[in-house]
Amino acid sequence: MERLLIEGGRRLEGTVQICGAKNAALPQLAAALLSPEPLTLLNLPDVGDIRSMLQLLEHYGAVIPQRSGASVTVDPAGVVNREAPYDTVRRMRATILVLGPLLARFGHARVSQPGGCAIGARPVDLHIKALTAMGAEISLDRGAIDARAPAGLKGARIVFGSPSVGATETAMMAAVLARGETEIMNAAREPEVADLAACLVAMGARIEGAGTHRILIQGDTAFRKARHEIIPDRVEAGTYAIAAAITGGHLELTGARLEHLSAVAEALEAAGVQIWPTDRGLMVSRTGRLRGIDIASEPYPGFPTDLQAQFMALMSIAEGASVIRETVFENRFMHVPELSRLGANITLQGATALVRGVPGLKGAPVMATDLRASVCLVLAALAAEGETVVNRIYHLDRGYETLDKKLVRCGAHIRRLQD
């Protein structure tokens, strides 16, 4: 098992290329199962979750030639409907996204209930609700979701009690093959949802309103061969922005889009960090002291839950106190005990963390528990005095492409060690 040895206290300077968004790429790869026509995706990140999804598509019979850089073509003409092996499904949550396309295309799908980071229950009930509204009969059998629609899916009005990104994506993908019109109310507004819609439109779908709370889809899509470029990863961009801030550094994030990070940029500026757009992306810099501020994770366009842990690391060395509320996942403070090992002063009460800033952190061995907790500890280690060892970094490699190498090029001292 690999781990990172990080010598902290070094200011980051330089340029970081932001990859394509993992959370946009995963549903688009699943969408390839809808059609017999090839789909080419550009700007695909080379991370563990993407490799797992490509492996899953190959299990279903899709032909995927060797990747060419950040481009991949999926040829799904020979796809067959079978249950995915649990060993593949258990690795990540996003495998649930193949349920809608397989059901819509074949009239039957059986998918093991997925795994992923242990950050909360993340039930699949909203996925099931959407498919049931379109006429599917669904049962849970021996750890798997069994969905049947022998007469095909039909358009429906789907109203979500809360905006779920994954459920919105499942409903969209299923609806493009359903008979008639589907209306999705209280849909998730994340950029990744809008990017999936753009990909589906390139494939031949008719979709309006993606990126708003109301999405309209006309079914019975006539698919065609398609190419689509994935949007840049706003979570990766936000992570490197916080890396610049926590080290008092200066980074240009090429490819990053400010419009996808408005809540994060607002929080960083309130905390004493400068962030502004450039011709190539974003510039992030900090020269003065950090100030503690309060944030709450919320669905887009609010502050993203996937940057909550990283921002907590930043607040741990800010002047004063900050209150951080997690409103999306009920178990996303597992990084707090590990931050405390580095000297952070954090008190938890339910879904709220009170962070009292300390003058500095000190290196220590820490253990990563999930993807975002992993990178939170890396950021804290960059600012800590002395050496920090971050263990169990396989989580990190699921979602960040060569993060340690990118940081080293900007002045960090990081070594990847083998046990």
Descriptive report:
The protein is α+β, with helices and mostly antiparallel strands and 419 residues long. It has 2 domains: 2-19 and 232-418, Alpha-beta prism (UDP-n-acetylglucosamine1-carboxyvinyl-transferase, Chain), CATH 3.65.10; 22-229, Enolpyruvate transferase domain (UDP-n-acetylglucosamine1-carboxyvinyl-transferase, Chain, Alpha-beta prism), CATH 3.65.10.10. 31% of the residues lie in helices and 23% in strands. The protein contains 14 helices and 22 strands. The strands form 6 sheets. The protein has a 4-stranded mixed sheet with strand order 20-21-1-22. β8, α6 (165-175) and β9 (181-185) form a beta-alpha-beta unit. α1 runs parallel beside α7 (191-203). The longest helix has 13 residues, at 191-203. It is elongated. The N and C termini lie close together (6 Å).
Largest beta-sheet details: 4 strands, mixed
Here the CATH topology of the largest domain equals UDP-n-acetylglucosamine1-carboxyvinyl-transferase, Chain
Number of helical segments with 4 or more residues? 14
How many domains is the backbone divided into? 2
Question: Helices and strands: which structural class?
Answer: alpha+beta
* Shape label: elongated
Gap from first CA to last CA: 6 Å
Number of strands: 22
Question: What would you say the CATH architecture of the largest domain is?
Answer: Alpha-beta prism
Task: Using the coordinates above, name the CATH class of the largest domain.
Answer: Alpha Beta
Share of helical residues: 25-40%
Model regions low in confidence, pLDDT < 50 over at least 5 residues: 116-122
- Average pLDDT figure: 94
Describe the oligomeric state of these chains in a short phrase: single chain
Please state the CA-atom Rg, rounded to the nearest Å: 21 Å
The percentage of residues in β strands lies in 15-25%
Strand arrangement, largest sheet?
Answer: 20-21-1-22
